[in-house]
Amino acid sequence: MAQSYSARSRAIEPFHVMALLARANELQASGRDVIHLEIGEPDFTTAAPIVEAGQAALAAGHTRYTAARGLPALREAIAGFYHQRYALDIDPQRILITPGGSGALLLASSLLVDPGKHWLLADPGYPCNRHFLRLVEGGAQLVPVGPEVNYQLTADLVERYWDNDTVGALVASPANPTGTVLDRSELAGLSAATRAHGGHLVVDEIYHGLTYGLDAASVLEVDDHAFVLNSFSKYFGMTGWRLGWLVAPPEAVGDLEKLAQNLYISAPSMAQHAALACFEPQTLAILEERRAEFALRRDLLLPALRELGFGIAVEPQGAFYLYADISAFGGDAFAFCQHFLETEHVAFTPGLDFGRHLAGHHVRFAYTQSLPRLQEAVERIARGLRSWQG
């Protein structure tokens, strides 16, 4: 008997890259050497001090629920991190610990979006953002952006696309898939534009810490009423621990806590105890070494791909991605990715996963492999281009 499932489940699109990943895993299982540049997960394992803190928490029996807002000690540590890194005094009461950055997005979208309302989002952008909005019966107004605006929403674009159903804007800095960063003046302009319409500004700062040649500004430096999504997954390298946080205006905390109690009770307690070690000097030293390594990887892969003919108009300043235009090679992005996976065993992501604007002409490379592996990938891609065009 055919099942009748919800319209929302049908409307949420799968990741196109997952089909490529499944094929990559098949090739790998058959003995092929696959270079993975498709998944946005650092190749580094979680830093040893964090792992040791997690093991100690388990040994001490810290396996029970925490309060819905999270461990007070962790919220205080995050507040201390904001003071150290941004010279901001954030009340720990405004911080909610969540199951990954996704948990923070779920809380924010549940709080701020009624059915039929929408946020403005840059296209290209991280696909789960629009999917979470659909989950709460809202929507995303995708705004086409390109290198002329650094692939970011601007105050002018907010003005141009805002309509009667718009209730806010979500931006990411650094952004996935483009790695671009919003500076303090751009964040201030976005804040002013959204507040002029009585809307909310939500900023994904999940890749903060992973910037090269500059430090990303937090929106909280210019707008104390913005909502900030963050995560322990990227800079702190705790992807599988599933831990993030949300900074909210004081007046929103009570409703967010109520949502957290009902949606997930609390974030994983063992992960929260482990994360306390993230802010220790020895851990931060390890993380800064890794940031320097990512910078070296970008500086290898970026010029190499440009030399091969990939169009990368804007040098990424953060995250660990290169968003490349493949128009010079013809064809569509998914077929292009399939070709390189099958012939050269290099996996990367088609632009279709990141929106609609020129998506079929773009691919994303994640420089989450070692320098020798990236150099090998470049050599394979050069060879694969000859067979693609031949």
* Biggest beta sheet attributes: 7 strands, mixed
Note poorly predicted spans. none
- Strand tally: 12
Described by the principal axes of the CA atoms, the overall outline is globular
Average residue-wise pLDDT: 96
Q: Class by helix and strand content?
A: alpha/beta
Strand order of the largest sheet: 2-8-7-6-5-3-4
Helix content: 40-55%
Distance between the termini: 49 Å
Description of the molecule:
The protein is α/β, with parallel strands linked by helices and 390 residues long. It has 13 helices and twelve strands. Helix 6 links the parallel strand 3 (118-123) and strand 4 (139-144). Helix 12 (333-344) packs across helix 13. The chain is globular. The N and C termini lie far apart (49 Å).
Please describe the topology of this protein.
Blueprint: H1 7-11, H2 16-29, E1 35-36, H3 48-59, H4 72-86, E2 95-98, H5 100-112, E3 118-123, H6 127-135, E4 139-144, H7 155-161, E5 166-172, H8 184-196, E6 200-204, E7 227-231, E8 244-247, H9 253-263, H10 269-275, H11 281-308, E9 321-325, H12 333-344, E10 346-347, E11 349-350, E12 362-366, H13 371-389
Parallel strand pairs: 1-10, 3-4, 3-5, 5-6, 6-7
Antiparallel strand pairs: 2-8, 7-8, 9-12, 11-12
Gist?
The chain is an alpha/beta fold. The protein is 42% helix and 14% strand.
List keywords for this structure.
about 400 residues; alpha/beta; 7-stranded mixed β-sheet; 3-stranded antiparallel β-sheet; about 15% strand; globular
